[in-house]
Amino acid sequence: MTIPIEHVLTLSAILFTIGVTGVILRRNAIIVFMNIELMLNAVNLAFIGFAASMQSMTGVVFVFFILVVAAAEAVVGLAIMVEIFRNKQTLNIDELNLLKW
Length: 101
What we know:
Blueprint: H1 5-25, H2 29-54, H3 58-88
Helix pairs in contact: 1-2, 2-3
């Protein structure tokens, strides 16, 4: 029993929309970071759905590279957040002005 590609793409679109909404509406850097990861996972789900529907491994290869980039992003992003919190004592995006002159 296989899941139709339309259902997979619908779920992927819903997850991506939730991620975009969270990035736009939230002000906490950790929550924004989690929503970006949710958007990456939605794209991964779409790639896997397409790969399964076409019986191809191309989508799986793309997912592998996206997961590697997401892991590197998580490490660098969390390290930056720790340093920002040490300096500013907050992770509120509105209060961060580190790149202003």
